[in-house]
Amino acid sequence: MHDDFERCVRAVQAKDARFDGWFYTAVLTTKIYCRPSCPVVPPKPRNMRFYPSAAAAQQAGFRACKRCRPDASPGSPLWNERADLVARAMRLIADGVVDTEGVRGLAARLGYSVRQVERQVFAALGAGPLALARAQRAQTARTLIETTTLPMTELALAAGFGSIRTFNDTVREVFALSPTQLRQRAKGKPSATAGALVLRLPYRRPLCPDNLFGHLVATGVPGVEEWRDGAYRRTLRLPHGHGIVALRPEDGHIACRLTLADLRDLPAATSRCRRLLDLDADPVAVDDQLATDPLLAPLVAAAPGRRVPRTADGAEFAVRAVLGQQVSTAAARTHAARLVVAHGEPVDDPEGGLTHLFPSPEALASLDPETLAMPRSRRRTLLALVEALAGGLDLGAGSDWGAARAALTALPGFGPWTVESIAMRALGDPDAFLPTDLGIKYAAETLGLGGPAAVAARSEAWRPWRAYATQHLWATGDHAINRMPAA
């Protein structure tokens, strides 16, 4: 979109927050870059330049606006709508892969050469993977500076910088303030605990939290997830350790409290929370498309901004999807809870009732199938999945959606419902669809849509947002997944 000068100018002049994260506005006279919705008086169009990423604006010599904080705007929805190389790379960079594995590790995960990855990412974003990771490190540093009392030396290492000098230079260059000045300007009191952070996760309005939090809580695994004091809480398996997050819907943002065993995991934890709640979606584009169907239009009007509840761990959700085959939600939770107690890693949660991390595929590889209270065919399906995950099947942020679908379909016991459930919740495909799902069948009967074949045919007009249409169809039923839990 940044190439459409007139459209970008109109968005800036209207201070349209829907375009935050789609592009960034740089002002030639002030050498500052902003989000489109910046509250200051818009500059003259002749002084505007537009960039596809904060990193590209920084590389061009512009610094972040102190008013609108463009580095903290919602991410571009494009990277969660597509499955091409650049989109996969962006999801992995957000997950912290460049910081932990370097550009070579990023390229290896994507299955391309370093040169191909750098070339395609630069062409799309105006900056390479290293510059994008640097911009993310700067935002991580800002968060830690403003929300913790960590000494700057420790903070620099936690944010991913190799030296205190690089940390100081980067912060000054990006924010035009020293780390000490940033801390002095911070509003509110920083956390007294080095590992506890309170963040705001922005999103594009509107947002309907009912199905989002209702689904997560209704299907939550005891010990791994809970609803407490008006917040959804869960444990996280992260690159350097574990974490516990509490997520609460607020006006204009999601309140996020993170407790991390290692502060280096902040970027990965934040990225996974955003994916879990689908916070980078463009709800206006989704709702406009779905509302063209006269049967869906009233559902969209009644609850605009529905999101797709996703997952913080693709492998975890795949295991849970198999446990949920042909059983009730309650039975699936019971099966999962037994696995957690037997094979999960214990964690300490002084603030609540969380007890374990969900078992990793490696931990489940030693699973004795005779201990599973389920049909023999489903045991075989679960063991085949665990073997594939332990062997390298990628269902994470950077996965190839087509290859993952093909690999899952080849496993015994994996039909369209299981594959599309994983595609929707774990892979994040916005067009995943389950025409044979019981909830969809109920909605189809209520709305007069016909059988699964008729629903599948009608759904062609809902592309590429059929996963969101699923949320609206499920809402026609009286189930806890459609309701915001009571505080």
UniProtKB/TrEMBL annotation:
Keywords: Activator, DNA damage, DNA repair, DNA-binding, Metal-binding, Methyltransferase, Transcription, Transcription regulation, Transferase, Zinc. Coiled coil: none annotated. CDD domains: ENDO3c (cd00056). SUPFAM superfamilies: Ada DNA repair protein, N-terminal domain (N-Ada 10) (SSF57884), DNA-glycosylase (SSF48150), Homeodomain-like (SSF46689), TATA-box binding protein-like (SSF55945). Gene3D superfamilies: DNA Methylphosphotriester Repair Domain, DNA-3-methyladenine glycosylase AlkA, N-terminal domain, Helix-hairpin-Helix base-excision DNA repair enzymes (C-terminal), Homeodomain-like, Hypothetical protein, domain 2. Its EC number is 3.2.2.21. InterPro entries: Ada-like_dom_sf (IPR035451), Ada_DNA_repair_Zn-bd (IPR004026), AlkA_N (IPR010316), AlkA_N_sf (IPR037046), Alkylbase_DNA_Glycosylase/TA (IPR051912), DNA_glycosylase (IPR011257), HhH-GPD_domain (IPR003265), HhH_base_excis_C (IPR023170). Residues 87-185 form the HTH araC/xylS-type domain. It catalyses: Hydrolysis of alkylated DNA, releasing 3-methyladenine, 3-methylguanine, 7-methylguanine and 7-methyladenine. Its cofactor is Zn(2+). This is DNA-3-methyladenine glycosylase II. The lineage of its organism: Bacteria, Bacillati, Actinomycetota, Actinomycetes, Pseudonocardiales.
